Amino acid sequence: MSDDDTTRLWLVERSYDDRDLIILIYATPDGEYELRKELAAAVMHQRRMTVTAAIDAPTENLEPVADDDLRERYATEATKMADSHDPGDEV
Questions:
Q1: What pairing do the DSSP bridges indicate for beta strands 54-58 and 63-64?
Q2: How far is CA 49 from CA 12, 36, 42, 59, in A?
Q3: pTM of the predicted protein model
């Protein structure tokens, strides 16, 4: 991956923590790379932010997925999302 590129990532996981944060994990279709976003639920609501099926992110911001099982799960989830949604679909 080149540092000056952007990469399409698909939503593979959404969770909530006890600090009222929404945690979104987007991954590449092969599950090799991920981008984790933590957003305050109140801020998302106030700004009327939506969660989309896919995002494009700078390649340099992606983290490799080290765990084989997690990488496989992310690849499966990303493929399902890509097969059933357009990138800009609100999910």
A1: unpaired
A2: 18, 16, 10, 23
A3: 0.89
